Amino acid sequence: MQLLQQTIQNIQSADHKMMEQAIERIDALCKPPGSLGRLETLAVQLSGITGELFPAIDKKAIIVCAADHGVCDEGVTSNPQNVTVFQTLNFPRGGTGVCAVAKITNAKIVTVDVGVKEDLPHDAGVIIKKIKYGTDNMAKGPAMSREEAIQSIEVGIEVAKEEINKGINVLGTGEMGIGNTTPSAAILSVLRECHPNEVTGFGAGVGPGGIAHKVEVIHNAIALNKPNRHDAIDILAKVGGLEIGAMAGVILAAAAHRKPVVIDGFISTIAALIAYELEPNVKDYIVPSHASEEPGAKIAAEMLGIEPMLQMNMRLGEGSGAALAFPILDAACSMMKNMATLEESMLLLKN
Asked: Averaged over 308-314, what is the pLDDT?
């Protein structure tokens, strides 16, 4: 709990004076005002995050947090749980979707076992931070204890801090956990105070009972566990997931160290909501990547007040959307550094 508290205390809002300077430079560039659209607002955000007019966002890492879910016992997904193990081991080998996309910007993939159901080999290239062997079945009781929920957040903080200390200056959030759209929809339903049918989608594949059964399981789990809408850790503990907590920790650590963090789709956005509930200033550091096909993703983004940059009809997860968005950050930084102002262009012509 001490690490979490210290991290939250270190989070401040973005540098608004630097953002004003960035706006002045962008408005002076050789182009019609606003003509580069979201690239301009992203550049301003990056300057505010880093406190630099010409931010360097060149050392990238996506932290993929892996964990299993006891609620899979309720038949909410058509995928076997051993896929979590298989895919978690596949990340260090470079064989997953996010690995393929991340290669285009040389982004590092960091894989963390927060709560995979099986023991993983210690030489597999996965950071072992296992808190427990998957969450408990939230349809029968709390997914985890409050202490375990805090631990999951602190795992994310620890791993993110280690990467930042190695020189990483932009982070992305990713996850692996069969069944994790179910706790994600549950968390969102509690935070939005709505029926789960408004925020529950297909995920990676629903079980034989379809979405209706998935909705019923979530509704009953919320009714049973009664998570406190005004206590993010209570919500995470009662109907959440270990990897969701860890991603929230990554986001908090990025904000505490004034580093941008690019979030992926639905599950990453839910983790961002948990982080935001713990410290609203984290929003300044969040860069949304793509609009997930999951229905709850749009609602979660609206609650955060963020707008994804890409519309790619994706719903893979893993951090794949974050990896795809990294080149846009590169472009925003290049615009600031390499595009001439009107005054600079006129001086060049005179000389």
From this structure: 95
- Give CA separation, 237 vs 139, 145, 226, 240, 280, in Å: 13, 6, 11, 6, 20
State the catalytic residue, choosing from 243, 307, 318, 344. 318
Query: How far is Cα 98 from Cα 149, in angstroms, rounded to an integer?
Result: 26
Give pLDDT tens digits for 268-304: 999 999 999 999 999 999 999 999 989 999 999 999 9
Rounded to whole angstroms, the Cα distance separating 239 from 230 reads: 14
Cα torsion 41, 187, 206, 156: sign = positive
What does the pLDDT look like over 235-246, one tens digit per residue? Answer: 999 999 999 999
Measured at the alpha carbon of residue 258, what is the angle toward residues 253 and 264, in degrees to the nearest 5? Answer: 60
Report CA 302 to chain centroid distance, whole Å. 15
Q: SS3 of 125, please?
A: coil
Give 219-248 as a DSSP string. HHHHHHH---TT-HHHHHHHH--HHHHHHH
* pTM greater than 0.90: yes
Q: Give the Cα separation of 276 and 283 in Å (integer).
A: 7
Q: Kindly tell me if the per-residue pLDDT of 53 is higher than 90.
A: yes
Predicted local confidence at residue 349, as pLDDT: 73
* 64 phi and psi angles, rounded to 5 deg: -100, 115
Res 176 pLDDT > 90: yes
- Cβ atoms within 10 A of the Cβ of 190, count? 23
Higher pLDDT, 201 or 260: 260
Which one, of 200, 250, 242, lies nearest residue 220 by Cα? 200
Reduce the DSSP state of residue 175 to 3 states and report it. strand
Residue 128 is inside which H or E element, if any? Answer: strand 127-128
Catalytic-residue membership of 243: no
d(CA 27, CA 40): 9
